[in-house]
């Protein structure tokens, strides 16, 4: 799977992207429904769930760095990515189904189960997720082709996470029996799909590794790589800020539409239109980046959600069950996040090349482990914040309950205000600290290709 400077074969491109469908069905189910499943189905205290999510995701975030080191140090006849893709997918599927299985536990036993199974899910998901995204910079070094390759798995991921889970999840769970049985059956279907899609991706990946230097690294070296790669630090900062916004939207959406809008089915009106818009944003990203530059792409990615969330906030006060305006808000928000997903993947792929250019070694899995670290770290913070905000404002875990004005306003603030501001700040960081523009990256690619050619010549 050595890096090329040309087009990636269509079979490799699309089957690899197909793997993201099952991967993000599982992630979407956890991000959208895990908290409300624990609080409203298993009847666990929201405050306790918030603490569990915070501790688990914080631990798992830094565990990602360890997994990135393991993957980069792996030497096998199947390469360093494929073995972990297979192992992680199978183990995570089992843990995922167990999480959505009611073992009739109560009290302390239930709390222990929730804490342990949630930590295990995060750790096993990491085993597969790190090597999956690490494949991308090895597929091609051509800038425009990399934009296309980076976008395709994000499109399948958005279909799985935003369209299927967030858009139709409530209806699918109800159709499968509702309540606990609906969650359990849906989890088994998702796990089977996950194994199938990753299996198809793995069977079509070549196993030839990049010929860049790849000395084994220690856990201490991981922090040294981060410290020495200034553009990696900048990319981490802006992606972290943007993900704060995404995680708040994902974590609060069910509560927002159930209680503020008074109709959980409004989640579908928002998410179905939003997920289609996100896919459109991803599809147009290569052309927008090509014609208007990556800078303009990221600027739009930060401004559009601010506009969409402002509209959603107004609609929530004036006409909370207006499907058309809710859908329009979703389209505006997710067109922006679609552009950001494309930008973020390209940013990190470029950072891998920049790392080789500056440090002389190529550390794909360490760099991409930071992407999942960011997602989990922000999810940890937002889960803790959401759980305690609900607990402190008197949230009643019952869809038929009348929530207080304080609770409703806190949900509005969590859903609309915090994400909008966080995404705008992400652009400020991008503007001031991230410098890997198109012209500089051409110099980077040319330099590292010359170095590889010289190494090959010396070997022969």
Structure description:
There is one protein chain. This protein has 460 residues and is an all-alpha fold. The protein is 82% helix and 0% strand. Helix 6 packs across helix 10 and helix 9 packs parallel to helix 12. It is globular, with a radius of gyration of 22 Å. The chain starts with 9 loop residues before the first helix and ends with a helix. The model has no long low-confidence stretch (mean pLDDT 86).
SSE topology:
Elements: H1 10-41, H2 46-73, H3 82-99, H4 107-134, H5 136-139, H6 143-175, H7 179-203, H8 219-228, H9 230-260, H10 266-318, H11 323-359, H12 364-392, H13 405-433, H14 438-459
Helix pairs in contact: 1-6, 1-7, 1-9, 2-4, 2-12, 3-4, 3-7, 4-12, 6-7, 6-10, 6-11, 9-10, 9-11, 9-12, 9-13, 10-11, 10-13, 11-12, 11-14
Q: The biggest beta sheet, please? A: none
Counting helices, strands and paired strands, the structural category is mainly alpha
Shape: globular
How many β-strands, per DSSP? 0
Overall pLDDT:
86
Proportion of helical residues? over 70%
**Rg estimate, integer Å:** 22 Å
* End-to-end Cα distance: 22 Å
Spans of at least 5 consecutive residues whose pLDDT stays below 50 are none
Order of helices and strands: HHHHHHHHHHHHHH
Q: Number of DSSP helices?
A: 14
């Amino acid at each position: 799977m050595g890096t090329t400077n040309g087009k990636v074969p269509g079979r490799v491109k699309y089957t690899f992207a197909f793997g993201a469908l099952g991967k993000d069905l599982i992630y979407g189910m956890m991000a959208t429904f895990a908290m409300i499943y624990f609080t409203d189905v298993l009847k666990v205290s929201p405050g306790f769930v918030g603490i569990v999510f915070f501790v688990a995701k914080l631990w798992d975030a830094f565990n990602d760095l360890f997994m990135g080191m393991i993957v980069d140090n792996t030497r096998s006849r199947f390469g360093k990515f494929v073995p972990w893709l297979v192992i992680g997918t199978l183990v995570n599927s089992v843990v995922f189904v167990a999480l959505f299985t009611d073992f009739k536990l109560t009290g302390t036993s239930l709390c222990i189960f929730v804490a342990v199974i949630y930590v295990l899910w995060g750790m096993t998901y990491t085993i597969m997720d790190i090597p999956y995204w690490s494949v991308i910079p090895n597929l091609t070094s051509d800038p425009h082709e990399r934009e296309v390759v980076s976008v395709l798995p994000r499109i399948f991921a958005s279909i799985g996470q935003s369209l299927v889970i967030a858009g139709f999840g409530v209806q699918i769970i109800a159709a499968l029996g509702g309540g606990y049985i609906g969650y359990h059956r849906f989890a088994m279907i998702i796990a089977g799909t996950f194994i199938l899609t990753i299996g198809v991706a793995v069977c079509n990946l070549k196993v030839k590794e990049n010929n860049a230097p790849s000395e084994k690294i220690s856990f201490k070296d991981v922090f040294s790589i981060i410290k020495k790669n200034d553009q990696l630090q900048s990319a981490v900062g802006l992606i972290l800020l943007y993900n704060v916004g995404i995680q708040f939207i994902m974590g609060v959406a069910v509560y927002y539409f159930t209680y503020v809008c008074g109709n959980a089915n409004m989640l579908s009106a928002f998410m179905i239109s939003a997920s289609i818009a996100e896919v459109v944003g991803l599809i147009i990203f290569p052309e927008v980046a090509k014609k208007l530059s990556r800078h303009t792409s990221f600027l739009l990615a930060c401004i559009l959600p601010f506009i969409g969330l402002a509209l959603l906030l107004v609609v929530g006060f004036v006409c909370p069950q207006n499907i058309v305006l809710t859908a329009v808000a979703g389209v505006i928000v997710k067109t922006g996040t679609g552009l950001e997903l494309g930008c973020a993947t390209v940013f990190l792929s470029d950072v891998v090349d920049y790392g080789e250019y500056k440090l002389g070694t190529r550390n794909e899995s360490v760099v991409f482990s930071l992407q999942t670290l960011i997602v989990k770290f922000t999810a940890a913070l937002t889960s803790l914040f959401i759980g305690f905000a609900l607990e402190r404002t008197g949230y009643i875990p019952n869809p038929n309950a009348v929530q207080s004005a304080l609770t409703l306003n806190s949900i509005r603030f969590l859903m609309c205000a915090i994400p909008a501001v966080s995404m705008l700040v992400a652009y400020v960081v991008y503007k001031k600290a991230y410098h890997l523009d198109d012209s500089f990256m051409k110099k980077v690619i040319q330099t590292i290709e010359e170095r590889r050619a010289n190494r090959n010549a010396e070997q022969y």
